[in-house]
Specification:
Chain lengths: ~325, ~325
C-alpha cells in the first residue's frame, strides 16, 4: 500500500443536520400520524420536511451525514481522507463543504446546480438524549456512478460506504462501481449498515454486498440481527465467524464486539453522561478506522472507536470540536 | 397600557451566527492584518466574509442578532413579543425566521428578494470563552423606515432598539421613526448600546437618542464609559442619575448596577463556568425586560437579567433551549 497517501475515502449522503429538542409526546404523535420511527431514521419528502420543520422548535444547524461525520472524526484523529457525496450549490451546501474541508477532508464532488436543494436531516432530540431522524435527501439523491472518482479511491487504504445510500438504486450502482475500483487497487471495503429499517428494506442487496465485497462490517445489535434474521444477540457471533471479514459490532453502553474468524474481542466503553446520541456510530467507525489504517490491533481499534463515540454523545450534534487525536495517546 | 398585548417589540439586525473555535494567535494575526477587534464586533464586507469563513474551522449555525436573541430569551421567560428586521429569501433567512417564530415571537418583516443574502456573524470563540464577532450585514442593511410597522409597536409596552443598527443611516432613520411611534402610543423606548466601538463611531447620535427618546438604557462598562468619555467606572453613576431614564449597566462577573434618579441597585450575578460569552448582554436585557414588563421592581429585573446571562454563557451560542421561565420561580 505504498502508493496510498489517504487512510479512508467515504461515500455517503451529504446532509446538514437541524437539531431541536422535542418531547416524547410529540414524537409519538408524529409516529401515529406520519410513521416517524423513534430512535431511527425515516426518509421524508420535501413538503413533509417543510411541514415538520414548521412544527419543530428553534434549531441548531451543523454538518452531518453518517459517513461525512465519520470522516470529520477520522481527520480529528489525525487521519487523511476524502469524501464523495452530493450537495446543491446553495447556502447549506456551502456550509457542508466548508465544514468537511476545514476539518481536513478532501471533498471535490461537483455540486448539483439548479435542481433540488442540499439535503437535510431534521433531528428531534428527547430529554434522554435519544435522537429521531427525518431525512429529506434533496441533492444527495442525485449521487450516481459518474461521481465516483477512481483516483481518490485508488489513493485510499479503505473505502467506507454508508448503508443509507442503499435506499436509492443509482447510489447502489455507484456503490458497486466504487467497490470494484477498490478491489482493483487493493483498497479494503468497509460498510456501515446504518439503520435497522434501512437493512430491512434492502436485505438481499446488503447480504450480497457483505458476502462478496466487504472486508470490514460496522453494525449495531439491531442492524446485524435484522440483516441475518435472528432474534437473539447470542446467535450473531457464530454467523460472523464464518464470514471472511472483520465485524465491528456496537452494543451501546455494553461496548463493542469485534470478530475476525475465530477471534472475538469484547471492548468496554467509557460510561459518560449522554446529552445526544446523534453520530455515536459514526464516531465509533472513525476511531476504529483510524486505528485500523494505522496498523493497530483490533482491540485497540475498538477502544478508539468507543472513546470517540463517548466524546460525541456528550455534546449536541454528531461532530466534536475536541481533537480526537488526544484519545490515541490516552488509550496507549 | 390596557390595549397592549405584547411586552416587547425589538428592532435589530437579522443575522445567523456561525460559531467556530479559534486560537488567540489566529485572532491576533487577523487583528494585525485586517483590523479584527478581539472581544468586540467588526463589520466586514462580503468578500472578506468569504475569505474569513474559508480560514475558520468547522462551524455551528444558530440564529443570532443581538435584539433577536433578546426576543428569543424574552419569549423563553414567557413573554409575548415581536421583531422587526431584514432577512433575504434564502436558506439562512428561512432558518432565522423559523427559529424566531418557533420560539414564539411575531416576525413579519418581508424578506429581501433577489439582492444581498441573509446577513451572518462569523464568531470566533477562544478557549477562555471570549467571542470575537465579524459581521457581514447582507440583507440586514436594507432595513428602512418602510419596514417599521406602527401597529405592532403600538401593541407593545416596550420598544427595544439594538445599537448596532446605528452603523447605517437608513436604519438610524428607521430607529427615529419607531421612537416617535412609540412616544405617540405610550410605548417605552429601550436601547442597548451594543458595542464600545459602535458607540465611538456614532457618539453624537447616541447621546441625542439617549437624552431625548430613551427610557431604559442597557450598556456594559466599556460602552457607557465610551458614550460619556469617562475613564473610570466610578464616574458613571453620577452621570446616569441626572438623566430621566433607567440605566441597566452590566459589569460581567461583577453583576449589574441599575440606576434610576437617586436610586442605585447593585445586583450580583451567579458565578458559573464560562463556555462562550456570545449573547450574554442580550440575555441580560431579556430577563430585565421580562421583569420590567411584568411590573417587577428594578432589583428583581436585574436578578432575572443576570440569571439569564448566566445560563447563556454556559453553552455555545447566544440562545439556550432551557426554559428561562424556570428562573422566575427560582428567583422568587
Amino acid at each position: 500500500m505504498s502508493d496510498k497517501d489517504l487512510g479512508v475515502v467515504a461515500i455517503g449522503n451529504a446532509l446538514v443536520d437541524v437539531l431541536a429538542h422535542a418531547t416524547d409526546e410529540f414524537i409519538e404523535q408524529q409516529q401515529r400520524d406520519h410513521g416517524m420511527q423513534p430512535g431511527a431514521m425515516t426518509l421524508i419528502e420535501r413538503l413533509r420536511a417543510v411541514e415538520l420543520y414548521g412544527m419543530m422548535g428553534p434549531g441548531t444547524e451543523v454538518s452531518g451525514g453518517s459517513a461525512a461525520n465519520t470522516m470529520a472524526g477520522f481527520a480529528s484523529f489525525g487521519g487523511k481522507g476524502g469524501f464523495i457525496g452530493k450537495v446543491a450549490d446553495d447556502q447549506l451546501g456551502e456550509i457542508f463543504r466548508h465544514d468537511l474541508r476545514s476539518s481536513g477532508i478532501e471533498f471535490d464532488t461537483p455540486a448539483l446546480v439548479a435542481s433540488e436543494p442540499t439535503g437535510r436531516c431534521l433531528i428531534l432530540v428527547t430529554d434522554d438524549g435519544n435522537r429521531t431522524m427525518n431525512t429529506f435527501l434533496g441533492a444527495a439523491v442525485e449521487l450516481n456512478e459518474h461521481d465516483i472518482d477512481e483516483d481518490i479511491i485508488k489513493r485510499a487504504k479503505v473505502l467506507y460506504l454508508e448503508g443509507y445510500l442503499f435506499d436509492r438504486d443509482q447510489a447502489k450502482a455507484a456503490f458497486r462501481k466504487a467497490a470494484e475500483i477498490a478491489k482493483k487497487h487493493g483498497t479494503k471495503v468497509a460498510l456501515s449498515l446504518s439503520d435497522p429499517f434501512c437493512v430491512d428494506r434492502h436485505k438481499a442487496d446488503f447480504i450480497d454486498l457483505v458476502d462478496n465485497h466487504v472486508d470490514i462490517l460496522f453494525a449495531n445489535e439491531q442492524e446485524i440481527m435484522s440483516l441475518y434474521d435472528v432474534f437473539e444477540w447470542d446467535q450473531v457471533p457464530a454467523i460472523i465467524e464464518q464470514k471472511d471479514l472483520i465485524g465491528a459490532l456496537t452494543r451501546s453502553e455494553k461496548g463493542s464486539v469485534i470478530i475476525e474468524n475465530d477471534q472475538i474481542f469484547e471492548v468496554p466503553t467509557p460510561q459518560v453522561k449522554v446529552l445526544d446520541t446523534t453520530g455515536a456510530g459514526d464516531a465509533y467507525a472513525a476511531g476504529f478506522l483510524f486505528g485500523f489504517t494505522e496498523g493497530m490491533d483490533l482491540y485497540k481499534c475498538g477502544e478508539l472507536g468507543s472513546a470517540a463515540a463517548a466524546e460525541v454523545i456528550q455534546i449536541m450534534g454528531p461532530r466534536t470540536d475536541k481533537k480526537l487525536a488526544e484519545l490515541v495517546s490516552r488509550a496507549a
